[in-house]
Specification:
heterotrimer; B: 87 residues; alpha+beta; two-stranded antiparallel sheet; 30% strand; C: five-stranded antiparallel β-sheet; 24% strand; binds flavin-adenine dinucleotide
Chain lengths: 754, 87, 290
């Protein structure tokens, strides 16, 4: 969009300091582990040393007798859960599986699976007592790899698991394949037969973790009257409450979840792990109980994203992409529910491909149950597709960005599920990338290469509730319930200030607990600035309407003669009659009482978004080390409410994607032990491993939002895996189709080591 | 008439057709109209009066787990898709 | 973590008297290995014996004979921040300044790095090529041995019951000689060596190699000296050809394993590359200003 077309805003597009900024940089903000209810005691979870085993017996007597122990919990303390599915924001969870994942009842399905827990006055006592719990296991064969798990003779995780597909069971005998999705359009065979060029390749990616700094922690107080209070580090206090209510079989209203500040989530702080266990320990001990995971517990027992195996066959004709045959198998971990359907639906999204056949499989393996991780399912799919697209562009001698532009989706293009795209911005991203100083600069020097890649994410709407209280001095209090993971207090306050025509500094924002605000879905799916922003805007309209009603009465004119504009009320028929927002607020007691705006909604109109990234790398062919020399991320965000925080999201996503591309992986031994369950050996990039990441914000406003917001947080992790891989292919002449493209893989490949 | 995009795995019920034109003012009407042409379709998509948890629907580009009373316009586009799992 | 007793004696004699008596005693210097191991229940003990209050274990001095004497519990930063050390023993700084990060280096000691006996530890190959010796003490007296003879296997050193490491002695570097140490890590900081190599070279005025030592790390159960590499260099002209031969010897001496940090094949390959590059850098240092 050109500058002339862009609406001029007063607050949107500026870069004020976030409301939670001072508390956070001065160390005063309270995170989950800072909860200190009176009488607090600590717990420790005992976890399975086996990746797959039947639990024959659990003897807790020695732990109960250990001096200082206050309570011991096992699955027997949990009510029997029903086998039903609960919507959880972008995710759906089966409650029986959720309950079994929280405390295993009869079988452990991955190493680190929780089996029992102990509460004591000190965490060290709890740990020593937990070690004294005798668990008798019957080890079972282990299956760790997605394709091996799909074989006919693979060990089964669940003898009752049959394959489901579109509302029907499609297998007659149990397997590890929980579900299958399929998308078909056009005539793939014919398109391949008539193609100018065809590329076919197999790709794999390993499980990777979100790597948030703050480990999972939960503090629960279960009072004798049945009232439960939870201090949680969660992306959604209501999702936390909902899961807890189901697992514990308690009415939702008896549970109050207090959302503490969150030290990173990226999708991983959506399922509950510790809360139900801490609740049981609190009920049994009569004390508030805090459970905190160690880093290795976080790696072994919380949800990473799927390892994948993806087969790609693409065809080009007449200089554009014409056909795609894709086969995706995603590891769900211990229980069904990988992000394969999202992978299958996003994979071709950047392109208008007439002929396609896509098969996707959701497969259980003896590893932790996967959880959401930024644009779940899409990065691995883009890793595979965008490398094949790159190869195809080379095969027909086209510039990789120009080839993408020629094949690009636009408004009206049908996604593989038949949905026509509304106004989208992929072509704008490609053009901005082509025009960027980075892409125009030459890439020179030995062992250097450049790669580009695009990526897509749906972005979500879902449910939000807010209230806005107008104070008599003209300031306002916004009470919302979206966990602030990324500066959303600021982006919401800015939208409220814009919609009311007041200053940002006049808005104070509180993220409230579940007793103090209506339902809000999780902060996930890049939805908060979009959907809670929509609610904030509607609450502002509610306030405007209440003020117009009162002004009409005050002035004795008709309500439709009163307009609310730029923070002031005026009467269209009498120019002398005006009131500022603050002036009206000051009169609220005399004009009918407090003015409170409210809105609750199921947000429609979420705008999917694209990004295109450019990476320059240098590879040391002797050691296999890759340095990222320069990196530019272009992204359509609709409208950047707070450009600095949008840039931060884009840079953060790119950083995580670069880590995923180069070094991060769950490294298992044959018995299913995660050998690198620490930040030392799970090699996320440090500040020294990344260049400054340049951002180019493209703004193609989302027609479904009053300010055009699309959502920004997830798209930027989609392109980096392939952008880096394409750059390495350019630098080395070798295409690496398995992640991570670690120094080990590079030297083993380039030097033909066994 | 609304256009319904039949997912690949349900096309065998509809004689292999990917797109159908049907009448219906609500999602429920539209699905019942598809059922009339493709017997067995409804039970794959709906259970206990609501979309199955594993199924989502997109109406004019808006995807979600809509109620069956959701209005559908005369020129609307309706897609049946898998719910986004694991997200 | 099991409960244990903690004592911080002020004298070596007191420390010796606490060793033995049938109790499992763990000496504590910086604690950057020990505390992690205790907390993760990878190790347990009855008594933690803190050595940091014993003055002679904390001092760093340059002796009259020109050698550097580092108390076993002196923090790494106390060693590498001395300008004289930086000038005369740069290879020691190469190693000490990459162990962990700044915070770790304010605590971690050379003594702990050696006693912990990790095959991937950074200081051993550097100390080995510089010809460093260790002074070891017990109630019965003291003994000395070359660093290279200190390691028995992963996590195992050759201290006898009742003994403590007292001091690391690094001799002065002879004229026209210099050492260099480096490692390979996939990231640029906060990582453990996948493979490492140290090299020391003495070069005559005509460029002939008069003395050489190569040591490699993370490619065998202990850090290794590679005498064959030194022999391959001796008497040859310093340069690509000689260094390549030595690198080959280093790679063949390696007995690496495959684990989450790297594969055996990768390590064998890498250690050759690292040995060659270490020789190039040591040569550069030895001939600087000529
Ligand atoms: C974040 C982090 C990063 C690290 N990075 C590196 C790295 O890059 N490279 C590397 O080599 N190491 C690294 N380490 C390991 C560790 O920091 C080093 O090995 C360090 O030098 C150990 O010294 P310390 O004084 O802390 O030893 P301590 O932990 O106090 O002791 C280590 C062992 O030696 C024994 N011991 C100590 N002193 C004596 C003595 N005088 N006599 C007898 N026994 C003794 C102890 O009982 C213990 O078994 C890292 C550690 C951490 C936590």
């Amino acid at each position: 969009m050109t500058a002339a077309e862009k609406p001029s805003y007063r607050v949107i597009g500026t870069r004020p300091i976030r409301p939670d900024g001072v508390e956070k940089v001065t160390g005063k903000a309270l995170f989950g582990a800072d909860a200190r209810p009176a009488g607090l005691v600590y717990g420790k979870v005992l976890r399975s040393p086996h990746a797959h085993a039947r639990i024959l017996s659990i003897d807790t007597r020695a732990a109960e007798a250990f001096p200082g122990v206050l309570a011991v919990a096992t699955a027997r303390d949990l009510p029997a859960a029903s086998d039903e599915v609960q919507a959880l924001g972008e995710t759906a969870v089966n409650l029986k599986e959720l309950s079994d994942n929280v405390l295993a009842s009869d079988r452990v399905l991955y190493r680190g699976h929780a089996v029992a827990a102990v509460a004591a006055a000190s965490v060290h006592v709890a740990e020593e007592a937990a070690r004294r719990i005798r668990v008798e296991y019957e080890p079972l064969p282990v299956v760790l790899d997605v394709r091996e798990a799909m074989l006919d003779d693979a060990p089964l995780l669940n003898e009752r698991l049959l394959t489901r597909s579109m509302g029907k069971t499609i297998s007659d005998r149990p397997s590890n394949v929980a579900s299958k999705v399929q998308f078909v359009g056009g005539d793939v065979e014919k398109a391949f037969a008539e193609a100018d060029a065809v590329v076919e390749r197999h790709f794999t990616t390993k499980m990777v973790h979100q790597g948030y700094i703050e480990p999972q922690t939960a503090t629960v107080q279960w009072n004798p009257d049945g009232e439960i209070t939870v201090w949680a580090t969660t992306q959604g206090a209501f999702a936390c409450r909902g899961q807890l209510a189901e697992v514990l079989r308690r009415p939702a209203s008896t549970i109050r979840v207090i959302p503490m500040e969150v030290g990173g989530g990226f999708g991983g702080k959506t399922p509950v792990y510790l809360e139900p266990v801490a609740a049981i320990l609190s009920r049994k001990s009569g004390r508030p109980v805090m459970l905190t995971m160690s880093r290795s517990e976080v790696f072994e027992a919380t949800g990473p994203t799927s390892g994948t195996s993806i087969h790609v066959k693409l065809a080009a004709s007449g200089g554009r992409l014409t056909a795609a045959q894709l086969d995706l198998a995603y590891e769900a971990g211990a229980y069904p529910g990988s992000s394969v359907s999202a992978g299958a639906m996003t994979m071709l999204a950047p392109y208008d491909v007439e002929n396609f056949k896509i098969d996707g499989y959701d497969v259980v393996v003896n590893k932790p149950k996967t959880a959401a991780y930024r644009a779940p399912g899409s990065p691995a799919a883009a890793f595979a597709l965008e490398q094949a697209v790159d190869e195809l562009a080379r095969a027909i001698g086209a510039d990789p960005l120009a080839f993408r532009e020629a094949s690009s989706s636009r408004e009206g293009t049908r996604m593989v599920n038949g949905m026509p795209f509304p106004r989208i911005g992929h072509e704008e991203c490609l053009r901005a990338a082509m025009e960027s100083a980075h892409y125009r600069s030459p890439i020179e020097g030995p062992n250097r290469g450049r790669g580009v890649a695009s990526g897509y994410w749906f972005n979500a709407g879902m449910q939000s509730s807010v209230t806005v209280a107008v104070n008599t001095d003209g300031t306002v209090n916004l009470v919302e319930g979206s966990s602030d993971l990324s500066g959303t207090r600021a982006s919401l306050a800015m939208q409220l200030a814009e919609s009311l025509g007041i200053e940002y500094s006049q808005v104070r924002v509180t993220v409230a607990d579940t007793d103090s605000v209506g339902h809000n879905d999780v902060s996930g799916g890049s939805r908060t600035t979009f959907a809670t922003g929509l609610a904030v805007h509607q609450a502002a309209l509610d306030i405007q309407q209440q003020m117009r009603t009162r002004a009409a009465k005050l002035w004795g004119c008709a309500e439709d003669e009163v307009v609310y504009e730029a923070g002031s009320l005026r009467c269209t028929t009498d120019e002398a009659k005006t009131l500022t927002f603050a002036g009206m607020a000051a009169q609220s007691a005399r004009t009918g009482g407090p003015i409170n705006g409210r809105a609750s909604l199921l947000a429609r109109g979420a705008g999917g978004a694209f990004g295109t990234h450019i990476a320059d790398v240098e590879v040391d062919p002797e050691t296999g080390k890759v340095q990222v020399l320069r990196y530019t991320a272009v992204q359509d965000v609709g409208t950047a409410i707070h450009p600095a925080y949008v840039e931060g999201q884009i840079q953060g996503g790119a950083a995580q994607g670069i880590g995923w591309a180069l070094n991060e992986e769950y490294y298992y031994d044959d018995d299913g032990r995660l050998a690198n369950a620490s930040f030392l050996d799970y090699r996320m990039p440090t500040a020294l491993d990344l260049p400054a990441i340049d951002t180019v914000i493209v703004e193609v406003p989302n027609p479904g939002h009053p300010y055009g917001v699309r959502g920004a947080g997830e798209v930027p992790i989609v392109p980096p895996l392939a952008a880096i891989a394409n750059a390495i292919a350019d630098a080395t002449g070798h295409r690496f189709s398995d992640l991570p493209i670690s120094p080990r893989r590079i030297v083993e490949t380039l030097h033909h080591l066994e | 008439m609304a256009e319904v995009w039949v997912p690949a795995l349900l096309r065998p019920l509809c004689g292999g057709t990917a797109r159908l034109q049907v009448e219906g003012a609500t999602l429920g009407d539209v699905l019942r109209a598809v059922e009339a042409r493709c017997p067995g379709f409804m039970e794959r998509v709906v259970s206990e009066g609501a979309l199955r948890p594993e199924i989502a629907v997109a109406i004019d580009g808006e995807a979600g787990s809509f109620p069956l009373f959701e209005p559908v316009g005369p020129a609307s586009h309706v897609s049946i898709l898998p719910a986004i799992g694991g997200g | 973590m099991e409960a244990f007793e903690y004592v911080a004696p002020r004298t070596l004699a007191d420390a010796y008297s606490l060793l033995g008596n049938g109790r499992r005693v763990a000496a504590l210097a910086g604690g950057t290995d020990l505390i992690v191991q205790l907390r993760e229940a990878r190790r347990s003990c009855d008594l933690v014996l803190d050595l940091k209050r014993i003055p002679e274990l904390r001092v760093v001095t340059i002796a009259a004979d020109g050698s550097l004497q580092v108390g076993a519990a002196a923090p790494l930063a106390d060693v590498y921040e001395i300008p004289e050390v930086r000038r005369r023993w740069p290879a020691l700084v190469d190693a000490a300044s990459i162990i962990g990060g700044t915070a770790v280096q304010g605590r971690a000691s050379l003594g702990g790095n050696l006693c912990n006996a990790s095959p991937a530890a950074d200081s051993p190959p550097a100390l080995m090529v510089m010809g460093a010796r260790l002074r070891i003490g017990s109630a019965a007296g003291t003994r000395e041995l070359p660093v290279g003879e200190f390691f028995a296997g992963p996590g195992q050193n050759t201290l006898l019951p009742g003994e403590l490491l007292l001091e690391v002695i690094v001799p002065p570097m002879p004229a026209h000689s210099a050492a260099f140490y480096h490692r390979f890590i996939p990231r640029n900081e906060m990582d453990i060596a996948v493979a490492s190599a140290g090299a020391w070279l003495q070069v005559g005025s005509d460029g002939t190699i008069e003395g050489a030592r190569i040591a490699i790390g993370a490619v065998a159960p202990t850090p290794l000296m590679v005498p064959a590499a030194a022999q391959a260099l001796h008497g040859r002209k310093a340069g690509a050809e000689a260094f390549a031969l030595a690198a080959q010897e280093a790679a063949s001496a390696a007995r690496p394993i495959t684990d989450m940090r790297g594969s055996a094949a990768q390590r064998r390959h890498l250690v050759g590359v690292l040995a060659r590059r270490a020789l190039e850098r040591a040569h550069q240092r030895a001939t600087e200003g000529r």
